[in-house]
Amino acid sequence: MDQNTLTPATNQGLRQIVYEKLKDAIVNGVLKPGSKLSEIELAEQLAVSRTPVREAIRQLSQTGLITLTPRRGAFVTLPSLKDASDLYELRQALEIIAIENVCENPPIKDLKLFREIFSAMSGQTSHEEYLTEDRRFHCFLYECSGNKYLHKTLNNIVDLINLCRPYSMQSDPTIMGVFLKGHLAIIDAVLHGDCKKAIAEMGSHIEDTKRSLLAFLRQHPGDYTSVEEE
C-alpha cells in the first residue's frame, strides 16, 4: 500500500476538534448570527494553523451554520423569516415521527426524570438553563426514536433554529411557561400510553415555538443580535 494515500491521524483529529469547537461556539451563541469569521483570528484563539480552521469553516458551511459569500468571506448564518418557517415545517413533521416511534417503547424512567426537571422550572428560570434542558430533552427523543437518519437530520435542523431562538425568548417573558406546559403534556401523554395525544401535543408544542420565533423575526428583520436579555 502506498503510504502517502492515508492522512495522518493526528491531522484528522485536529480538524475534527476545530470543527467541534467552532460548531459549539456558533450553537451556543459565542459566535453570533451574522458575525464575520476571520481565519487568522480563529486560528490564533484555537492555537492552530489556518488550514484546519479553513476546513472546519467549509464543513460547517455544508451544514448551513456558516454562509460563504463570494468576495466577502464567511459569516455565521443569520436565518431569515423564510428560513425559519421552512425549518419548522420540516421539524414538525419529523418530530411527530420521532414521538410516534418513542411511544412504541417509551423510556419511562428517563421521561419521569425530565418531568421532574421541567416541573421544577418556572418563568424565573434562566433562558440558558431552559434551552439547555429543552435541547437535551428533544435530542433524547430523537435518539430514542431508533432512526439514526431522523436523529441526525433533526439535530441539524435544531442547530439552525437555535441560532436565533434564544433571542426570541428574550422578547416574550411569558413564553417559557407555554413551552414548559408543552413539554409536560408530551411527557404525560407518553407515560399514560396515549400515543395519539402525544403526537397532538408534540405538534402543538412545535407550533408554539414556531409562532414565537416567527413573530420575533418579523419584529426584528435583519440583525436581531443586539437584543439584550432583560
Automatic annotation (TrEMBL):
GO MF entries: DNA binding; DNA-binding transcription factor activity
SMART domains noted in UniProt: FCD (SM00895), HTH_GNTR (SM00345)
Keywords per UniProt: DNA-binding, Transcription, Transcription regulation
Entry coiled-coil feature ranges: none
Domain spans labelled HTH gntR-type: 12-79
InterPro entries xrefs: GntR_C, TF_FadR/GntR_C, Tscrpt_reg_HTH_GntR, WH-like_DNA-bd_sf, WH_DNA-bd_sf
CDD domains assigned to the protein according to its UniProt record, in alphabetical order: WHTH_GntR
Pfam families: FCD, GntR
PANTHER family found in the cross-reference section: GLUCONATE OPERON TRANSCRIPTIONAL REPRESSOR, TRANSCRIPTIONAL REGULATOR, GNTR FAMILY
Name of the protein in its database record: Transcriptional regulator, GntR family
Source taxonomy: Bacteria, Thermotogati, Synergistota, Synergistia, Synergistales
